[in-house]
Structures are given as C-alpha cells and as structure tokens.
Design goal:
The chain is mainly beta. It has two domains: 35 residues, no CATH class; 91 residues, Sandwich (Immunoglobulin-like). It is built from one helix and ten strands; from the N terminus they run ββαββββββββ. The strands form three sheets. The chain has a four-stranded antiparallel sheet with strand order 4-5-10-9, with no helix packed on it. Strand 1 and strand 2 form a beta hairpin. The chain is elongated and about 85 Å long. About 25% of the residues have low confidence.
Length: 144
C-alpha cells in the first residue's frame, strides 16, 4: 500500500480513523460519513441505590483470569486483555489478535472502601457492588 493510501489517525480522545478516498470507501464520503468510529460507547455504567454503589463494565470475550481490577483511594481501574495466536503450517496460515479494555473512574465518596466489594462476571459483564457508608445511607426521621 502506498503512503498516500494509509489511513490518517485522529489525535482526538476518540478512536477515529479518516480513510483516504478509495473506491471501496467512496460511498461513506458521498453520504457525509468520512469519519468511521471504531467504537460508539464506553461500556461502563455507574449507579447508586439507597445502600450501594454499583459499577458495570462491558468486557465481552474475556475470562475471569483476563481481568484486573484495582482500587486506589476512590479511583477504580478495570483492565482486561486477551491475546490469541493461531498458526497452521500446513495451510501456511498465521493469525495474531489482541482484545483489550481499560476503564478508570472516580467513585462517589459514599462508597465504603474499607470492605471488599461484591463482584460477579457473567456474559461479558463485570459487576462490582460497593456498600455505602452508614453515614451516607438515608435515615428515617420520626416526627413527634
């Protein structure tokens, strides 16, 4: 491939590639779609209930052993990576692929970080549940 037909990488925070005008990409430019995003959503959700702070991260295709979760004060980091290599000398075939995810988020201070959170990983979704501190939970006030 010549230098002029190489994709132009964006320097923005979003993974976007601008493709040169090639016959097989021409229809995107004709429709005003010259930029093709590699991903359209983050795959990370954080919500609160009365008693907990819940983080859900999308990590499809990974095993539990491929996932690393760290907590530094109230900053949660979730990383996952899967590497695959396949070689078939008979068919003269070699394939190498990497799938990786990385999420970092500052959690609300209401989360109780002194206890281990409850974690589950099912169907490509990691769920981390922190209890809220006693001080941050709603209290009922009795009227006299």
């Amino acid at each position: 491939m010549s230098q002029k037909n190489q994709p132009e990488r964006s320097t923005s925070h979003f993974p976007v590639v601008r493709f040169p005008k090639l016959p097989f990409f021409g229809h995107f430019e004709d429709e005003g779609l010259g930029l093709l995003p590699f991903t359209s959503s983050t795959g990370l959700s954080v919500y609160q209930t009365n008693k907990s702070v819940v983080v859900e991260a999308s990590l499809p295709g990974l095993k539990n052993s491929d996932i690393e979760v760290t907590l530094d004060k109230n900053f949660l980091t979730i990383r996952g990576e899967k590497k695959e290599e396949e070689e078939n000398k008979e068919k003269q075939y070699y394939s190498k692929a990497t799938q990786s995810y990385s999420y970092s988020i500052e959690l609300p201070t209401q989360a109780d970080f002194s206890h281990e959170p409850k974690t589950t990983y099912q169907d490509g979704v990691l769920n981390i549940t922190f209890n809220k501190t006693q001080e941050s939970q709603p209290k009922r006030i009795h009227v006299k």
